[in-house]
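PROTEIN DESIGN WORKSHEET
SECTION A - STRUCTURE
LENGTH: 172
TOKENS:
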């Protein structure tokens, strides 16, 4: 079993789109209408949008590979790329997804550790993220690694307003 992480570049936009569609669908399709899912996928993961995000110097994407196959990814935001104004001392994990077939191998924690490493190198005091209030597995994972709920905000899946818990981990 080999695990490694590679930063995504603009050349990886098609691979990023594929893994984004797959992981988002696996995670949320059973709890949302197909119309809302399709609307969100087209908005969030079209190539133009992903290339814009990949070109932002304050956003970074990393693939995690399991036995040389892309198993998931993480998107990290700092500064003005953060979805909420959390300050210059904060790092946001906007997305962290692992394909279903690769879950339970510690890959989420592996990606989180990459975010933690970047936060520490950048002298950040906290890491935060938004997680859907109905995503019990993710909430349990984040609590297990030291996140606490510090707020909530709206997230739109197509035309449906949903609530994301804002969870924060203070760094020492």
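SECTION B - SEQUENCE
RESIDUE ASSIGNMENT:
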């Amino acid at each position: 079993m080999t695990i490694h992480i590679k930063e995504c570049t603009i050349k990886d936009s098609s691979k990023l789109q594929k893994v984004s569609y797959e992981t988002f669908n696996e995670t949320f399709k059973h709890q949302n209408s197909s119309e809302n899912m399709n609307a969100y996928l087209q908005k969030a993961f079209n190539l133009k949008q992903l290339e814009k995000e990949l070109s932002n110097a304050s956003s970074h994407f990393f693939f995690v590979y399991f036995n040389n196959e892309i198993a998931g990814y993480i998107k990290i935001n700092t500064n003005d790329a953060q979805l909420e104004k959390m300050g210059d001392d904060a790092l946001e994990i906007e997305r962290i997804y692992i394909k279903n077939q690769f879950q339970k191998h510690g890959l989420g924690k592996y990606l989180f550790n990459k975010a933690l490493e970047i936060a520490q190198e950048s002298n950040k005091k906290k890491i935060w993220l938004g997680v859907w209030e109905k995503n019990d597995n993710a909430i349990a994972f984040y609590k297990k690694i030291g996140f606490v709920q510090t707020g909530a905000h709206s997230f739109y899946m197509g035309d449906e307003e949903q609530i994301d818990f804002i969870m924060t981990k203070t760094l020492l």
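SECTION C - NOTES
Helices lie at 13-28, 34-44, 47-55, 107-121, 136-144.
The longest strand covers residues 160-170.
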